[in-house]
UniProtKB/TrEMBL annotation:
It comes from Streptomyces boncukensis. GO terms for molecular function: acetyltransferase activity. Belongs to the arylamine N-acetyltransferase family. Keywords: Transferase. It holds the Pfam family Acetyltransf_2. This is Arylamine N-acetyltransferase.
Amino acid sequence: MSAVDVDAYLERIGAERPARADLEALEYLQERHLRSVPFETFDFSLGDPVRIGEGAVEKIVGRRRGGGCYELNTSFAALLTALGYRVSLLAGRSLHNGQEPRLGAFFGHMMLRVEIDGEFWLADVGFRWASWAPLRFAERGPQKDENGEYRIVDTPDGDVEIVHDGVHRIRLETRARDIGDFVPTMWWFCTSEDSPVTGRTIWASLVRPEGRASLLDRRLTRYENGERITEVLDDDAFPAAVERWFGIELDRLPELPPMPAAGPRARRGPWT
C-alpha cells in the first residue's frame, strides 16, 4: 500500500496516523475498525465477486463497504503491514453459532497474529464475538475487554480455543498461513448450497456508540436512547435502514425471504 492508500484507509476508519507501530496504536486501530467498518455478507447473496487482500481493501476503502471475516481481516492486515507491523494470518473455525455449540467449516474463520517487540497479539475485526482490543497470545488467564471476558485455552492437538464469556467461540491454528490457503474455503462460501452466506441468508453487524446494530435477513436489531429495538424490514424500508445503520448504499436488493404474515413491527425492550 502506498502512503496515499494508508491515508485513505485511516480516513475510512476515522483514525489518525499512529506515530509508531506499538500496542497502543494497534488497540486504537482495531477499535476504530470495528466501529467504522461493518461485517456484512450482501455480496454473497447478490452474486457479486468476493475478494480478499487487495481486492478487499478496494471494497472497504474505495467503495466504503464492509465484508466477511476474510475480507475484513486481510484488509486490516494490509493496513497494519503498511504501518510497520509484522502480521500473520491464522486459520480457525467457529464452535458456536450464537445459540448452541456447532462446529463450523474448516478454515471458516481467520484471525491475525501481530508481533510487537517479540510478543504476539491476536486481533480480529471480522467476528461478532471478537474482542474489541487485541488479546495477549501467551496469556492463559482471563483477559477483560469491553466486549466481555476472554480466555485462550490450549487444546491437546496444538491448537488454541478462544473462549468468550464462558462460551468456546473459535478453534484456532497456531501456524501461520498464506493468503492463498484461504481461497478454496472462500470458493466454498461463495458457491456451496451448504454455505451459511449464500442464498437468502444475510448478515450485517456494526459496533455503534449506542450499542451494536445487527441485521439477519429482514430482522434489524439496534439501540436508541438506551432501548433495544427490533423490527422487520419490508422491501421499501430495507435499503434506507441498511444505509442508516451500516453506512452501505445498495444499488439493488438482495434476495430476501418473504415478509412475515404480521408485517413489520418494532419491539422495544430494556438495554441488555
